[in-house]
Structures
1.
Amino acid sequence: MPNTTLENSPNAVLNKSVAERYMHLPCPENKVKATYIWIDGTGENVRAKTRTVDFVPKKPEELPVWNYDGSSTYQAEGTNSDTYLCPVAIYNDPFNGGNHKLVMCDTYKYNKKPTETNHRHTCLQAMEAAKDTKPWFGIEQEYTLLDMDMRPLGWPKNGFPGPQGPYYCGVGANKVYARDIVESHYSACLYAGINIAGTNAEVMPAQWEYQVGPCEGISIGDELWVSRYILHRVAEDFGVIVTFDPKPIEGDWNGAGAHTNFSTKAMREDGGIIEIEKAIDKLSRNHLRHIQAYDPKGGKDNERRLTGRHETSSIHDFSAGVANRGASIRIPRGCAEDKKGYLEDRRPSSNCDPYAVCEALVRTCILDE
Ligand code: ADP
Ligand code: MN
Ligand code: MN
Ligand code: MN
């Protein structure tokens, strides 16, 4: 039987050993490729472009403010299109190596106001106000790999794989697809300097997860967005597509989330379970606000995923419980036993903006807004 997987993927069929010849050319000293990364007008896709700088940047403030054509990213009118890119965080570039850098940016309109999808701006204000409580976040990023025909990678072209069961944390060629991409991404994130905490195969075949964190404050958003850029870029090298859609396949297949684990200093100290319970009480009274912040379409994407089935809670109800994977909020068993630790908010969608999610958690649980 012919193997049809990836036959239409131009990036997969290019000969990578030819590219190696050029990637290993020596680079002049003090010439650095800086790849500026930003969130486009969809609020869920990343864009990037590269420029040369003639010094090795150590802090984002040292890098020039740049601009781009916002009319080509759903962020501006063609007649007034210049949109500003402001560097906010720097990472080592795992694709170019050497002194080359990845530069996370936030975006501003011609009038210096944040663009509609720049949720970092207000998130940073909330994080500054809550700084003394030392908020930590750890996000479990789930995603699905697709072939060029937009079907999950490795799935039969004219049918479906066997039912869910053997795939979660699976091992073996008939259980998991494209571990090469997963491991390459993991190594690339470590090289970049991202606090990647782990990875595992998910319940639906071709679905995977990695975790970023714990990170304190705004850095969770910066690191998660750059980890997503790295994932798209690694998969591009293999000719495979990454989707963060929260329900890529309808029917009896798990969706994808971005469980957000959250704690303050007080929650992490002895007896902190009291603080965790206080936070859950506040969350119970702000369910709608959180659902609106937890996907890029104000709750519409999560409507497809938060059905009350497939290890989710219903989008319409708030619930919390120890070790309960069918609740909005789960207290991990270990934290209940230790009477301290963190809570897990299971509602954020896989394509959420972590700046919006973490801002909502801080404003509800810490700032009492
Ligand atoms: P699950 O059991 O839900 O699959 P994971 O092991 O995938 O959990 O992810 C747990 C996440 O919680 C990790 O990203 C980890 O860094 C993060 N985490 C651990 N401790 C804390 C804490 N005190 N505050 C916030 N996040 C934490
Ligand atoms: Mn997990
Ligand atoms: Mn998971
Ligand atoms: Mn989880």
2.
Amino acid sequence: MIEVFKNEVDKGLQADSKTLPSKYFYDKIGDALFVEIMNLPEYYLTRCELDIFQNKTQELIEAFSVSTESYFELIELGAGDGTKTKELLRSLDAQNYNFDYFPIDISSNALNLLEKDLKNELPNLSVQIQEGDYFKVLASLKESKKPKIVLFLGSNIGNMSDDMAADFIYSLGSNLQAGDKLLLGVDLIKARHVVLPAYNDSQGVTERFNLNLLDRINNELGGNFNLNQFKHQPEYDELEGVAKSFIVSTANQTVEINATGKTYNFTEGEKIHTEISRKYNDALIEKIIEKTDFNLETKILDSKAYFADYILRR
Ligand code: AVI
């Protein structure tokens, strides 16, 4: 694991245009900062999808085409604290739908908290927590051949390139059966004055989240990044519909990393690209879905039409 981290950091920092993978944001500190981000006034994404789950619950249930007569499995990839999903679970439970809820997450801590919370709030609900890799868990659930609805919320797909997103969704499909559904929650392309502040909040939480990557390299790989000489810089191109996060060197400087045994030079103003957060429209989603075994069935929007939950059928 640390070996892979080391190699990816080395490769990214040696490139002509420097990069670091966004998956390394999420250590304990990064997880906590992301929870803070989701509660920021500027980070509209979470509130918009919660609006759908709170106010369009019945539309969601209808789009799943499930009946109270037959059983299904509701699987959530990266369930976190389950705030949004709880709205749906409450409604399914109240209407006596016959299902088990399988939240999958890499954090056993998050899963245990969620299980405890749901036991309190919805004591009749059957919760089967699944710790680990999404695809491994899905492969093991496939054997049951039970109808499945998979939730992938929060525009998490947006942190992948379009090709990677298509591969990811294709792989999800290969672990499902014909007729199973995928709910894909995505942020929509919109004006710069709305998107950019979500990645450049006034309290500097997103800056800490981004720079935490350098802290991780210092702590885990023996780096000597001086965090005072780097700053967070988000950019958003309205036409392309991609928000990008960079870490910018504010001085000419050299950084050493013990684990790689190398030094890396930075010129003043040089950027390290750390994340893409893709925003979508129907055409972009259709182009991605075309390369998979899914068909697009329905789209459910929040009241501001900032965010969409697309329902796909395998
Ligand atoms: C997890 N992901 C969808 C977030 C996003 O909006 O791209 C991560 C994030 N990065 C900065 N702020 C939030």
